Amino acid sequence: MVRQFESPPLYVQAPGLLSRAGEYLRSLGKQLALIADDTVEAIVRLPLTRAAVEHGLNLTLVRFRRECERSEVRRLAEFCRGTDVVVGAGGGRAVDAAKLVGAELGIPVVTCPTLASTDAPVSRVAVLNRPNGAVEEVRLLERSPALVLVDSDVIAQAPVRYLVAGMGDALATWFGARACWRAGGRTLFGHAPTSAGLALAERCWTNLRTYAREALVQARAGTVGEALEAVIETNILLSGLGFENGGLALAHAVHNGLTQIPARRPVLHGERVAFGLLVQCVLEEADETEEVLNLLIDLGLPATLEKLGLDRDEAEIELAVDYIFSREKAKLANEPIEVTPLRLLAAILRSDELGRASGRRG
What number does CATH give the domain 11-156? Predict the structure, then answer.
């Protein structure tokens, strides 16, 4: 089986990076289209415009309407025709929309995350949603983003919930890659996981065990310290390279299944993945189950269905399980143990029980 390592050619992370972005952008083209929603525009437009002007670049804003769905991607692509480069700024949806626009137009993509909530900025995978936010399609693109610019000052000022959700996503990276390796599975691109991918994935787990709690303290204070810098890199770079080159397993399958159940409140990608990781650990009877559960509780990540805005309704959960077994077979195949619908349903309910019990102890 082919082993192949996926990665953007350049990742840059530093405080105040947006004001110096022109020196990196100028190598890709002169006509730049910036895709951002109104909230993100207020953060990035001024420093990026100044940086562009300093280097003789032309930056045009294209307003993102907050959901990465088919009609929105088509609309954005029409506005971006004739430009040299697409710059996607914001969270995972805006970044994925920019990647899809770049793929449609055949031009380079620069990702400029203002949140460390997902690993989307480094990935050549894009999630296309339905208008209601449910996952419709996970699309594999022909190339990774050409450049990733991460301003840690900007991320330190973002709502802490997004950083924590990114930790939830990154926590699952090692467990997904390990499962795939043990199962002799495949990455999303159909390749064998690489040793490099496995090592990067394991570093996600190591870094979060070491730095997550202190990074949360720093983020709440809006301070960029070593712990926060380490977690930003973990959430975005290490997690992205780890999952692309190590593989995904049950945690992300559970995430996608749970998106099919209407939630009572908005839920972030990494929050669902965090609960999916707990389910994976329970089903695998992983040695780290208790440590994972404690870390979820300490960080404020969902360890119960209620925290995901869901009821403990077995009929609804069965619908999610049915979706997983009909649409997520590749991720299930990356598990080194047998997964059946009944076992998965039991693991979801057992995870909810553990989370409830842990909350009562706290």
Answer: 3.40.50.1970
